[in-house]
Amino acid sequence: MNLNIELTGQDSLVLTFKLLDTPLTDLWLERMSLRNQYPLDCPERFYGFNPVEQELYHAEQIMRRCVETINAHEVIITKPFTNVYDQDCLNYMHNMHAAHK
Fold first, then answer.
1. pTM of the full structure
2. Would the CA dihedral through 69, 72, 73, 78 be positive or negative?
3. Alpha-carbon torsion 29, 34, 35, 38, what sign?
4. Which of 3, 45, 55, 68 has its CA 20 to 30 A from that of 22?
5. Is there a contact between 83 and 89 (Cβ–Cβ < 8 Å)?
6. How far apart, in whole angstroms, are the C-alpha atoms of residue 29 and residue 101?
């Protein structure tokens, strides 16, 4: 049994996976068929398939949303997120994560 996943965009790509015929595979396929009804994962964790500029923009938007979410609970990040090229900003974010995990 094969599973084909089609990635569309500027350069289309089809990934083919051979699946073992097991009860677990059957259950997994059943659950995956329901994924639009019940989101099972976060599609934002898949990255690197778009042009660099788009990926950078996406990464920066995620970082800004994370800072907003954290600060909505408790204001602990006092420096604004600037961009992915600002090493001081990235070091600060890393230090905040390490201090509050």
1. 0.55
2. positive
3. negative
4. 45
5. yes
6. 35
**Amino acid identity for residue 74 in this structure:** E
Query: Torsion angle, CA of 17/21/22/24, rounded to 10 degrees?
Result: 30
- Tell me the H-state helices in the chain: 23-33, 52-73, 87-100
Evaluate the CA torsion angle 33, 36, 39, 45 in order and state its sign: positive
Residue 74, both tokens: 């408790």
What is the per-residue pLDDT across 6-16, written as a single tens digit (0 to 9) for each? 888 778 889 99
Closest CA to 75 of 46, 96, 44, 98: 96
